[in-house]
Specification:
0% strand, 66 residues, single chain
Length: 66
């Protein structure tokens, strides 16, 4: 049985995919960078979106402040 190197085969397959679809790979990398930048902006801002129902409902004026 001949030696079988899985890592070399995976590298060859990835390289072949990149050479056949360079625009797709560039678009995927750009999307990944954009997501990373947005995640970093949220992390530095410290503002996290609240997922509770109260965040999206307008209860009207506060009766105690009238």
């Amino acid at each position: 049985m001949a030696p079988h190197n899985v890592v070399a085969e995976a590298g060859t397959r990835i390289g072949g995919t990149v050479s056949r679809h360079p625009r797709l790979v560039a678009a995927l990398l750009a999307a990944l960078v954009l997501l990373a930048l947005q995640d970093g902006a949220v992390a530095t801002d410290g503002m996290v979106v609240d997922s509770t129902a109260e965040g999206s409902v307008d209860f009207g004026p506060d009766p105690d402040r009238d």
